[in-house]
Amino acid sequence: MKKKIYIDGMSCSHCVSHVKEALLDIGATKVKVELEEKCAIAEFDDDVTDNDITDALEEVGYEVTEVEEY
Questions:
Q1: Rounded distance, CA 16 to CA 45, Å?
Q2: Phi and psi at residue 40, in whole multiples of 5°?
Q3: Fewer CB atoms < 10 Å away: N or C end of the chain?
Q4: How many CA atoms lie less than 13 Å away from 35 in the CB half-sphere?
Q5: Nearest C-alpha neighbor of 29 from the set 59, 2, 69, 56
Q6: Average pLDDT of the chain?
Q7: 35: how many CB neighbours lie within 10 A of its CB?
Q8: Residue 43 burial (CB < 10 Å; 0-12/13-18/19+)?
Q9: What is the DSSP string of 2-33?
Q10: Which long-range contacts (CB under 8 A, 24 or more apart) does 17-25 make?
Q11: How many Cβ atoms sit within 10 Å of the Cβ of residue 26?
Q12: What 3-state DSSP class applies to 50?
């Protein structure tokens, strides 16, 4: 399933790398992080929940404001 994740706290290319790595670590594929739009789009297996996504990103210092199917 494809998800669009809205993220507060990203300000540079290092942030983009941290977000991408955190999402890949929980099983995401085809991750695209858009710094200017403050979001990420990624594909996940059905067993990855919105809470898993939120927890992974908050663990590396970012705030998830919304997760939606894309």
A1: 22
A2: -135, 145
A3: N
A4: 9
A5: 2
A6: 97
A7: 15
A8: middle
A9: EEEEEEES--SHHHHHHHHHHHHHTT-EEEEE
A10: 18/60, 18/61, 18/62, 19/57, 19/60, 19/62, 21/60, 22/56, 22/57, 22/59, 22/60, 23/53, 23/56, 23/57, 25/56
A11: 17
A12: helix
Q: Kindly report, residue by residue over 42-70, the tens digit of the pLDDT.
A: 999 999 999 999 999 999 999 999 999 99
Number of other CB atoms surrounding residue 68 within 10 Å: 11
Q: Report CA torsion sign: 60, 65, 69, 70.
A: negative
Q: Give the number of residues written for the chain.
A: 70
The two tokens of residue 25 are 């670590």
